[in-house]
Structure to design on (645 residues):
C-alpha cells in the first residue's frame, strides 16, 4: 500500500505541475528552501556556551515542528491524496494510514524539512565524528515524528473544526501566522537578542522537555558519551511517532465510517420576531436576512471573518513584543483588508444554489446589493470598534485622521469588489462527503481562490491609496484642514467604490448568469472536459501547460521578487521615509542619502511592478504560442481530411 500510494502521488504531482499550481508549488518550495538554508546556517554559528547552542537549535526545531503541525491549516492539507478517494475501497484503516504516512515522505515539504533538520548533522560535526553519526538517525526520526504529527494533527483538526470551537481555534492559528507575516519583521531586533542566548538558562530547560528537542539532546549526549540519554531520546521519538501513527489510524477509521456528518450538532435556530421587524421587506430584505444568517451560521464564512479579525489583532500586537505601539491603531484597517480578501469567493461558497437567484425575475440587482450590505454590517461594526479601542489604548492620537480616511475607502472598495471578484474567474466550493473539511481549496478552484485573494489585497490597498495620499499631503504641508479633507475623500471614495463595483457585479450576473451557474454546478475541471467534448477533441492535459517547468520556476521567482520590492522595500520604506521614522538596516533606503530615500522607495515599487509585468508577459507569450500551435494543428488535420477524402 505504501508503494502504491507513493507512485500514485508522484503520478498526480507529475501531471499537475502546470499553470498556477506549478507556480504556487515552486514559490512555496523556494521560500521553504530559503528558510531551511537559514536554519542550516545557524548550525555553523558559534554561541557563547554549549547550553546556548542547544537552546537555540531546540527553539528552531520547535518552530519547524509547529509549522508541520499547523501549516496544513493554511494550505488545506494534502492536495494530492484525499481521504474521499479511498472511502469505498475495501482497505483496512491501519493499512491505509500506513500508505498515507508513507506518501507523506514524498514531495517538496519533506525535502525542505530534510535540509532544515540537517542542522543536526552540522551540530554533531562540531562535537565529533560519533555525534555526527548519531545525528543521521536523529534526523530521520525527527522527520518521521513531524510527518506523523502532521497527519494525526490534520485529521484531528478535521474532526474538531466541525464545531464552532474548532473553527475558532483553526482561525486563531491562521490569524497568528498572517499577523506574523504582516508585522513580524518589526521584531527582528527582538529575534536577534533572542538568538544571542541570554534566555538559555531559563527557557532552555523548558525547551529540553519538548519532544521537538529530543533529537538535539541525543546528538549532545552522543558528544558527551552519555549513551543512556541517546537511547532514551531516540527511542522516545520512535515510540512517540508510533503512538501518533496509531492515533492517526484510529481517527482515519472513524472518519471512514462517519464521513462528514456532524451528528445533528449544528444549531440552526429560528427567526426571532425582532429580526423580522428590523429587516426590510421585499427581495432586498429577504437576501439581506439570508446573508446575515449565513455569515453567522455557516462555519466556513464565519471562519474567514474570524481569520481576518485574528490577523488584524495579531498584526497590531506583534510589534508590542519589542515595545512598539505604532501598529495598534491600524489593526482594524488590516482586519478590513483581510476580511475583503478572504471573502473574495462569496458566490463560490453557494455553489449550485445560485440557481435560486437566476430563476427569480430581476433578482440579480437585489441579490448583489443585499450581499454588499450584509458584508458591511458583519465587518464594519467589529472593525470600527477594534479601531477605536486600540487607537485609544495606544495613545497614538495622530493616527485618527489616517484610519478615518483609509478605513471607509477600504471598506467601500471591499464591499464592491467582493461580489464582483467572486463572479469573475468562478471558483465553486464543493462539499466532499467523507473528506476532511480542511481540504477546502486544494484543487483547481483553490488556485483561482488564492489568485483572487492576492488580487483583492493589492486592489484594496491601491483603491484606498488616494485618500491616504490626501492626508499625507496635508501632513507634509502642515495643513490640518487638508488632512481632514482626506477623511471626506475616503468616505466619498468608499461610497463610489461600493456603488460602481456593485453595479458591475449585478450586470455581470445578469449577462453571464447561466454560464456561471454551469461552472458552479460542474466545477472548474468539468468545464475543461465539457469543452473538449463539444469540439469533438479529447481534453489533453498538455493543452493546459502554458509554461514549462523552468518557466514556472521563473514565474515563482519574479512573483517573490515583486512582492518583496513592492511591499516591504517599496510601500513600507516609502511610508517610513515620508514620516522621517528611523529605518532598520534591512531596508535598502537606509543605505542611500536621506534626500534619495523617497525616490529609492518609489523605484523599488516600479521595479516590483515591472517584475509582475514580466510574469504577465510570459503568460501572454506562452498562450499566443499555444494558440498558434493549435491553429497549425487544426490546419494540418483539415489537410489530412482533404487528402483522405
Amino acid at each position: 500500500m505504501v508503494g502504491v500510494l507513493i507512485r500514485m502521488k508522484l503520478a498526480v504531482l507529475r501531471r499537475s505541475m502546470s499553470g498556477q499550481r506549478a507556480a504556487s508549488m515552486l514559490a512555496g518550495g523556494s521560500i521553504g528552501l530559503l528558510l531551511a538554508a537559514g536554519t542550516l546556517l545557524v548550525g555553523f554559528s558559534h554561541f557563547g556556551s554549549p547550553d546556548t547552542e542547544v537552546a537555540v537549535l531546540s527553539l528552531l526545531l520547535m518552530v519547524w515542528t509547529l509549522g508541520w503541525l499547523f501549516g496544513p491549516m493554511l494550505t488545506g492539507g494534502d492536495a494530492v491524496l484525499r481521504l474521499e478517494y479511498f472511502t469505498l475501497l475495501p482497505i483496512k484503516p491501519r493499512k491505509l494510514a500506513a500508505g498515507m504516512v508513507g506518501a507523506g515522505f514524498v514531495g517538496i515539504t519533506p525535502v525542505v524539512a530534510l535540509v532544515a533538520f540537517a542542522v543536526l548533522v552540522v551540530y554533531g560535526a562540531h562535537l565529533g565524528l560519533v555525534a555526527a553519526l548519531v545525528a543521521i538517525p536523529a534526523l530521520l526520526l525527527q522527520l518521521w515524528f513531524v510527518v506523523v504529527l502532521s497527519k494525526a494533527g490534520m485529521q484531528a483538526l478535521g474532526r474538531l473544526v466541525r464545531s464552532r470551537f474548532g473553527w475558532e481555534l483553526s482561525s486563531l492559528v491562521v490569524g497568528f501566522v498572517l499577523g506574523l507575516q504582516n508585522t513580524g519583521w518589526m521584531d527582528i531586533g527582538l529575534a536577534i537578542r533572542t538568538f544571542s542566548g541570554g534566555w538559555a538558562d531559563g527557557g532552555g530547560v523548558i525547551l529540553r522537555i519538548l519532544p521537538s528537542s529530543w533529537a538535539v539532546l541525543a546528538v549532545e549526549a552522543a558528544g558527551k558519551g552519555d549513551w543512556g540519554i541517546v537511547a532514551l531520546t531516540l527511542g522516545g521519538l520512535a515510540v512517540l511517532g508510533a503512538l501518533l501513527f496509531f492515533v492517526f489510524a484510529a481517527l482515519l477509521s472513524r472518519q471512514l465510517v462517519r464521513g462528514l456528518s456532524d451528528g445533528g450538532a449544528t444549531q440552526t435556530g429560528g427567526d426571532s420576531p425582532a429580526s423580522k421587524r428590523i429587516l426590510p421587506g421585499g427581495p432586498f430584505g429577504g437576501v439581506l436576512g439570508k446573508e446575515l444568517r449565513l455569515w453567522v451560521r455557516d462555519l466556513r464564512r464565519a471562519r474567514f471573518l474570524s481569520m481576518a479579525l485574528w490577523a488584524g489583532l495579531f498584526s497590531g500586537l506583534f510589534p508590542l513584543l519589542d515595545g512598539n505601539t505604532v501598529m495598534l491603531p491600524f489593526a482594524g484597517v488590516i482586519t478590513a483588508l483581510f476580511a475583503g480578501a478572504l471573502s473574495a469567493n462569496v458566490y463560490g461558497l453557494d455553489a449550485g444554489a445560485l440557481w435560486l437567484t437566476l430563476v427569480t425575475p430581476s433578482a440579480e440587482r437585489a441579490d448583489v446589493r443585499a450581499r454588499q450590505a450584509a458584508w458591511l454590517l458583519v465587518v464594519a461594526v467589529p472593525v470600527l470598534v477594534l479601531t477605536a479601542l486600540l487607537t485609544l489604548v495606544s495613545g497614538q492620537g495622530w493616527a485618527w485622521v489616517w484610519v478615518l480616511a483609509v478605513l471607509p475607502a477600504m471598506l467601500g472598495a471591499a464591499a464592491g469588489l467582493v461580489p464582483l471578484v467572486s463572479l469573475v474567474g468562478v471558483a465553486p466550493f464543493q462539499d466532499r462527503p467523507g473528506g476532511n473539511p480542511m481540504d477546502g481549496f486544494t484543487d483547481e478552484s483553490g488556485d483561482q481562490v488564492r489568485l483572487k485573494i492576492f488580487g483583492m489585497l493589492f486592489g484594496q490597498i491601491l483603491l484606498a491609496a488616494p485618500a491616504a495620499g490626501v492626508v499625507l499631503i496635508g501632513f507634509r504641508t502642515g495643513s490640518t484642514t487638508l488632512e481632514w479633507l482626506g477623511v471626506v475623500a475616503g468616505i466619498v471614495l468608499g461610497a463610489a467604490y461600493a456603488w460602481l463595483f456593485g453595479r458591475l457585479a449585478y450586470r455581470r450576473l445578469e449577462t453571464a448568469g447561466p454560464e456561471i451557474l454551469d461552472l458552479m454546478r460542474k466545477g472548474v475541471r468539468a468545464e475543461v472536459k465539457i469543452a473538449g467534448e463539444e469540439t469533438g477533441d479529447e481534453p489533453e492535459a498538455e493543452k493546459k501547460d502554458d509554461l514549462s517547468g523552468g518557466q514556472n520556476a521563473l514565474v515563482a521567482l519574479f512573483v517573490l521578487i515583486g512582492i518583496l520590492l513592492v511591499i516591504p522595500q517599496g510601500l513600507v520604506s516609502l511610508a517610513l521615509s515620508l514620516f522621517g521614522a528611523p529605518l532598520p538596516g534591512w531596508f535598502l533606503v537606509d543605505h542611500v542619502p536621506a534626500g534619495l530615500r523617497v525616490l529609492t522607495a518609489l523605484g523599488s515599487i516600479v521595479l516590483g511592478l515591472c517584475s509582475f509585468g514580466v510574469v504577465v508577459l510570459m503568460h501572454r507569450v506562452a498562450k499566443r504560442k499555444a494558440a498558434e500551435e493549435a491553429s497549425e494543428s487544426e490546419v494540418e488535420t483539415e489537410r489530412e481530411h482533404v487528402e483522405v477524402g
